[in-house]
Each structure stands twice: as structure tokens, then as C-alpha cells.
Amino acid sequence: MLLGGGPWTVGRKTVHFEEVIAEGGFGVVFLVKHKESGRRFALKRMYVNNDKDLAVCKREINIVVSTEKEHMCFALLPALSLQ
């Protein structure tokens, strides 16, 4: 896994890696800092290797989006672009 200060481009946002918060079987959660605003966010990178994993990923996104209304931003990206 590539780490470092970044910058990482996620969609149209640029963030800098600060630390790994958690690791599990389906992915890694990073603490990142948004380049422009300086705000810190949790960024979850999920491993999707097949259609079943993709379904689990989409289901998790739908659950979180339906329960959280504030400060949430989701994008299903083909890959995290590391610069």
C-alpha cells in the first residue's frame, strides 16, 4: 500500500494523508486533511475484487448515505489516484 503525505486526488478534492485509523478485511480508513479548507476527514478505501465485494461496498455506501445527513461525501471511484 502506498502511503505518504500525498497529495491524493479523490474525485475533484485534493487531500493529504495523516495516518491510518483502521484496517480490516474490506479496506483501510485513513485520516486525511483537505488541502483547501484544512478540515480533517476519514477516507475509507474499500477493496473490491469481484461482483460480491462491489455489492457489499454499494450497500455500505447506501446505508451510510441514508443515515448521515451532514458532512458526508461519497464517490464510488475506480481507484484512488495517488500523485
- Strand-residue fraction? 35-45%
Give the CATH topology: Phosphorylase Kinase, domain 1
Corresponding CATH superfamily? Phosphorylase Kinase, domain 1
Q: Order of SSEs, N→C?
A: EEEEHE
Number of beta strands: 5
Q: What is the typical, i.e. mean, pLDDT?
A: 77
Q: Calculate the terminal CA-CA distance, rounded to whole Å.
A: 14 Å
Q: What low-confidence regions span 5 or more consecutive residues with pLDDT below 50?
A: 79-83
The figure for the number of domains is 1
Radius of gyration, Cα only, in angstroms? Answer: 13 Å
Largest sheet: 5 strands, antiparallel
- CATH C-level class is Alpha Beta
What is the 3D shape?
globular
Tally of helical segments: 1
Label the structural class: alpha+beta
Helix content: 10-25%
Identify the notable features of this structure and list them briefly.
83 residues, alpha+beta, five-stranded antiparallel beta sheet, 20% helix, disordered C terminus
Structural description of this entry:
The protein is an alpha+beta fold. The protein has one domain (8-78): Phosphorylase Kinase, domain 1, CATH 3.30.200.20. Helix content is 20%, strand content 39%. The protein is built from 1 helix and 5 strands; from the N terminus they run ββββαβ. The chain has one helix spanning 51-67, and strands spanning 8-10, 13-24, 27-34, 40-46, 81-82. It has a 5-stranded antiparallel β-sheet, with no helix packed on it. Strand 3 (27-34) and strand 4 (40-46) form a beta hairpin. The radius of gyration is 13 Å and the shape is globular.
